[in-house]
């Protein structure tokens, strides 16, 4: 974990000298930790769909996919993932589910 009043710069932790820079460093650390949790939540929902597909349970996979899509979409709005990456995840998960039916 990064010390709150330091700013990573070229792989070196620099101590912020200006008050506003110290505050910004603290804010960035809080934001980073928050974003890590959101990214983890998205990954968990994606993994739930993949696990259901691996079991071969189409109904469970479809339900997990239906739960995952709004979470993935909300990550786009929050700026956690790029919209193209989110679309790629949704597309690949959907293809996996469709392959179960065949």
Question: Explain this structure to me?
Answer:
With 102 residues, the protein is mostly helical. It has a single domain (6-101), classed as Up-down Bundle (Methane Monooxygenase Hydroxylase, Chain G, domain 1). The protein has helices at residues 19-55, 58-77, 83-101, and strands at 6-9, 12-15. Strand 1 and strand 2 (12-15) form a beta hairpin. Helix 1 runs parallel beside helix 3. The model has no long low-confidence stretch (mean pLDDT 91).
Q: What is the total tally of β strands?
A: 2
Radius of gyration: 19 Å
Q: What is the total number of structural domains?
A: 1
User: Main β-sheet, in a few words?
Assistant: 2 strands, antiparallel
The strands making up the biggest β-sheet line up spatially as 1-2
Globally, the shape reads rod-shaped
Give the number of helices: 3
Helical percentage: over 70%
> Average pLDDT, to the nearest integer?
91
Distance between the termini: 47 Å
Structural class: mainly alpha
Residue ranges: pLDDT <50 for 5 or more in a row?
none
* CATH architecture label name: Up-down Bundle
Order of helices and strands: EEHHH
What is the name of the CATH topology?
Methane Monooxygenase Hydroxylase, Chain G, domain 1
CATH secondary-structure class = Mainly Alpha
By CATH's scheme, which homologous superfamily applies? Ribosomal protein S20
Beta-strand residue fraction? 5-15%
């Amino acid at each position: 974990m990064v010390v709150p009043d330091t700013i990573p710069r070229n792989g070196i932790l620099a101590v912020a000298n200006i008050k506003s820079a110290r505050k910004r460093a603290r804010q960035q650390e809080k934001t980073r930790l928050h974003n890590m949790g959101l990214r983890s939540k998205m990954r968990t929902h994606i993994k739930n769909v993949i696990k259901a597909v691996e079991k071969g349970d189409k109904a469970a996979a479809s339900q997990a996919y239906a739960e995952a899509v709004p979470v993935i979409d909300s990550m786009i709005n929050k700026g956690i993932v790029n919209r193209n990456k989110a679309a790629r995840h949704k597309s690949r998960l959907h293809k996996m589910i469709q392959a179960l039916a065949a």
